[in-house]
Write a structure and sequence with these properties.
Layout: H1 4-17, E1 23-28, H2 41-48, E2 57-59, E3 62-67, E4 71-76, E5 81-86, E6 96-102, E7 108-113, E8 119-123, H3 147-156, H4 161-166, H5 176-186, H6 199-218, E9 260-264, E10 267-271
Antiparallel strand pairs: 1-6, 2-3, 3-4, 4-8, 5-7, 6-7, 9-10
Helix pairs in contact: 1-6, 3-6, 5-6
Length: 291
């Protein structure tokens, strides 16, 4: 699933290609991506026609296109959703689901989604922040993000560090890839209880997450297959820089130990068994956190 760096790359691509343009018509080729529109796909198309697109915005893994500075088209890419910019007469890619034409007659915006877990949803009054995602926490790249405050919430929850990183109501944008990479950088096992972290260690973990995602963003995100590409069809190259994710059986870049893959929440976690040792059993809550 695209995580913050991949969604931000898509947002930036949309900012360059559709911001300031007015939608002339929308063609819904499959109803599932617009399944949340209350009156169906035809109403979705008519409700977007004639709307002027503002500068795309993002929070965590969600992005949205402001419409006329009032409403918004809220977007979640799901497992395989992607946007492509193509000439109107260019052949459609397989799994193209929604087409957006513009009054300037320029390139067409196409929503492509193989697995169709993604969705496009109109958010009335959502130009600044769609109501549907008000519960989503700030991500580390938001100017209002406060690491110390998030570290305090992390410590207060009786959970483990990877579960905390994946909790989008605590800190948004981090998924399985960047959680594993962040934990490797911070030298933490994914099952380390959050209540055992000092304030310094919790802030260090959040800083590691920010650093890892900044590096991924600079490389255009992580592409393992054609399910994630930029709006121009190019792939991201951070996959070449991953230290643990997807590298089971390979040597750790830091110590040389063999990377292992272990089950975690119906998915997998990758770690270095030497750099990220299993936590000792915790019998009582630590008092080392500085509030």
């Amino acid at each position: 699933m695209p995580e913050l760096p991949e969604v931000e790359v898509v947002r930036a691509g949309l900012a360059q290609t559709v911001a300031g343009r007015t939608i002339s018509q929308v063609q819904v080729l499959h109803p599932r991506p617009v399944r949340y529109h209350p009156l169906g796909q035809d109403a979705f198309a008519s409700d977007l026609a004639g709307r002027r697109v503002g500068i795309p915005k993002r929070r965590g893994k969600y992005l949205w296109l402001p419409l006329d500075g009032i409403d918004a088209l809220l977007i979640h890419l799901g497992m395989s959703g992607q946007f492509r910019i193509d000439d109107m007469d260019a052949p459609l890619l397989p799994n193209t689901r929604v087409l957006f034409d513009f009054t300037d007659g320029g390139p067409q915006l196409r929503f492509v989604d193989q697995r169709m877990f993604g969705g496009l949803q109109l958010s009335p009054g959502g130009a600044n922040l769609p109501q549907q995602i008000e519960h989503i926490a700030l991500d580390p790249f938001d100017d209002a993000f406060e690491p110390a405050a998030v570290a305090g919430k992390m410590h207060a929850r009786k959970t483990t560090v990877k579960r905390a990183l994946l909790d989008q109501t605590l800190v948004s944008g981090i998924g399985n890839i960047y959680a594993d990479e962040s934990l490797w950088q911070a030298r933490l096992h994914f099952n380390q209880p959050t209540e055992t972290l000092t304030q310094r260690r919790a802030i260090e973990l959040l800083a590691a997450s920010t650093d890892v995602m900044a590096q991924a963003l600079a490389a255009g995100g992580t592409s393992f297959d054609a399910l994630y590409v930029h709006v121009n069809g190019n792939s991201g190259y951070f996959g070449r820089s991953l230290h643990v994710y997807g590298r089971a059986g390979q040597p750790c870049d830091r110590c040389g130990a063999t990377i292992v893959r272990e089950p975690f929440m119906n998915r997998s976690s990758y770690r270095c068994p030497r750099c990220q040792r299993r936590p000792r059993r915790v019998s009582q809550r630590t008092d080392s956190f500085q509030r």
